[in-house]
Amino acid sequence: MASEDVKTSESAVTTIVNLAEEAKLAREGVKAPSHAILSICKSLVAGGVAGGVSRTAVAPLERLKILLQVQNPHNIKYNGTIQGLKYIWRTEGFRGLFKGNGTNCARIVPNSAVKFFSYEQASKGILSLYQQQTGNEDAQLTPLLRLGAGACAGIIAMSATYPMDMVRGRLTVQTDKSPYQYRGMFHALSTVLRQEGPRALYKGWLPSVIGVVPYVGLNFAVYESLKDWLVKARPFGLVEDSELSVTTRLACGAAAGTIGQTVAYPLDVIRRRMQMVGWKDAASIVTGDGRSKAPLEYNGMIDTFRKTVRHEGFGALYKGLVPNSVKVVPSIAIAFVTYEMVKDVLGVEIRISD
């Protein structure tokens, strides 16, 4: 009997220990996913806020850039940054400067959120593989690996939000004199689906994919590499205690944006023109008088590139570059710095460079 009592006691103790372990694991299992989900949400919020703030700050230049890209060469209305902004102000007023910005933000907020989050995840995965291959646990991402991570992030974010970018372009181009008016993003989406089919929502997707690789990739690679170099080299006393000032980070973002958009800009022009194909009112929207020649019809990315260069010259691939450059310098800089600052406020310990 004593032996049975001992066995019973041991069994009871074992059961209690097992239950305690299971409870502990359960608590940890719940806590870990909750913490991870909260961290993901904070990262997405920071990326979304960064995109919305940066894009709204440069909305007038964004609209002018698109108008310059798609205007009919036989009836020039927008001739340069200052003249173009004055013309929009005179003909459409203050609201005209921000036309399409609501739709733009509806696209850029999720796009920016996904882009920054995807970059963080891609960076972690690439760094882990790189450390395994080199056998060096202290290895850091090289500029080329950062370029690859940025390219992955750009492709994922752009593909996820491309239909909104497509209708945003059309909303931005239309004016009060347009024969047909899209009343908003959802009306534009439903109208394009009904009149042109679902494939129309992805017109210009291929040049966007090709263009996003150097654009977003270079943005992240240049920004982080510049920051890394400044922290290590500490030139001109720009760095104190391994921390860059807001002004210095803005300068890094401006440099990154300028390099990235200059390389990828021709593909952005091609993409925008392809998005207008099939829109029966595009000619009237671009010319405004109904008397100019109809715009060219394009059949694919190569055909768009060839016809643009043949009919308008190589310089047409850089139409709107000046207002775009003025826009990109503050926009990318604000986006990067806002993202890091919002993450600091939300208490997320890891920044994109870590």
TrEMBL record:
Placement of Solcar repeats on the sequence: 38-125, 141-229, 244-345
GO cellular component, one term: mitochondrial inner membrane
Keyword annotations of the record: Membrane, Mitochondrion, Mitochondrion inner membrane, Repeat, Transmembrane, Transmembrane helix, Transport
Residues of the signal peptide: none
Subcellular location: Mitochondrion inner membrane
Domain of life: Eukaryota
Predominant cellular place of this UniProt entry's protein: mitochondrion
Membrane topology: Multi-pass membrane protein
InterPro entries in the record: MCP, MCP_dom_sf, MCP_transmembrane
GO BP annotations listed: transmembrane transport
Entry similarity comment: Belongs to the mitochondrial carrier (TC 2.A.29) family.
Name of the featured protein: Mitochondrial carrier protein
